Amino acid sequence: MFILIFFIVLWYVSLFCQTFFQHRYAAHGAFKMSKSMEKVFFILCYITQGSSYMSPKAYAIMHRLHHAYTDTELDPHSPSYSKNVFAMMWRTRNIYRDIMSGAIVVEDRFTKNLPEWPTFDRWADSAVSRILWMGIYITIFIFFATSPWLYLLLLPIFAMGAVHGAIINWFAHKYGYTNYKLKNTSHNLISVDILMLGESYHNNHHKYPSSINFGRKWHEIDPIYPVIKLFAWMHLIKLPNLAAIQAKTEKDF
After folding, report:
1. DSSP character string of the chain
2. Which of 14, 129, 160, 194 has the fewest CB neighbours in a 10 Å radius?
3. What pLDDT does residue 241 have?
4. pTM here?
C-alpha cells in the first residue's frame, strides 16, 4: 500500500511542478513571479521530478518550438514523425539534450524571458544526480515493496516527467475531441481531467496557450486554475490583465 501511495503522490506533485512552473510559467509566461520564487520552484521541480528532472529553460524552449512548428518535422514531439510513443520520447530526449548542450542554434524569439539558474541545472540535469535519485527510489522499494510486481512501477518513476509529456504529446494529438478547429492535430484527451491536472485539454491549450485556465466548457475542470488564483491572491505570483491573456493565440511563438 505504501508503494502505491508513494507512486500516486509522486505522480501528482511531479505533474503539478511541470504544468505550473515549466509549462504555464516558463514556456508561456501565463503569470509572473519573482526571481526568488523562481528558485523555489527550480528546487521543487528537482525534488519532485528527481531522475526525470527537466531544466525549465530547456523545457520552455522545446515547448515553444512545439507550438511554433506543431505537426511538422521541426516539432520536437510530434506523433507524425515517430513510429511509436517510445520513438517520440527518444527523439524528444535527444532534442532536449541538444538544447541543453547548445548543439542546436535556437532563434532569439524562443529564448525570451526564460527562468535561468545555470549552476543548479548543471547539477540537477547531470547523470550523477539522476543515478542518485534512481538509487533513492530503488531503496524505497526495497524497504516497502510487498510484491515483486510493484518493482514495475520503478520504470515510470525513473522517467516520470517524460511519461507525463508523452501522454499528452502522443495521445492528445491522436485521440479525443476538439472544441476549436485549428491547423494542427491537437485534441482534448479527457473531458474531466483529474489524471493530468488539466494538461489533457490540449486543443483548448493550442487555441489559448497563455491562458491560466485550460478548461473551456463547464465540465472541463482544470485543477491548477484555482491554485494559480490562490497563489495570485497570496501575492506569490502576479497575473497579467485579462485583455493581455485574451489577445494571445496559438501563434504566440
Report:
1. -HHHHHHHHHHHHHHHHIIIIIIIIIIT--SB--HHHHHHHHHHHHHHHGGG---HHHHHHHHHHHHHTTTSTT-TT-GGG-SSHHHHHHHHHHHHHHHHHT-S---GGGSTT----HHHHHHHTSHHHHHHHHHHHHHHHHHH--SGGGGGGHHHHHTHHHHHHHIIIIITTTSSB-SS--SS---B--SS-TTTTTTTBHHHHHHSTT-S----STT---THHHHHHHHHHTTSSBPPPHHHHHH--TT--
2. 194
3. 76
4. 0.93
Spatial contact of 174 and 185, defined as CB atoms under 8 Å apart = yes
In order of 160, 161, 169, 186, 223, the CA distances from 70 in angstroms are 23, 20, 10, 9, 26
Q: Which residue has the cell 494571445?
A: 248
Cα Rg of the chain (Å, integer): 18
Average pLDDT, whole number, for the chain? 95
Query: Tens digit of pLDDT for each residue in 54-66?
Result: 999 999 999 999 9
The burial class, CB within 10 Å (0-12 / 13-18 / 19+), for 66 is buried
Distance CA 69, CA 178 (A): 19
Q: What are phi and psi of 160, to 5 degrees?
A: -55, -50
**pLDDT the model gives residue 86:** 96
Q: Give 67-110 pLDDT, tens digit per residue.
A: 999 999 999 999 999 999 999 999 999 999 999 999 999 999 99
Cell of 150: 510493484
Q: How many CA atoms lie within 13 A of 17 on its CB side?
A: 27
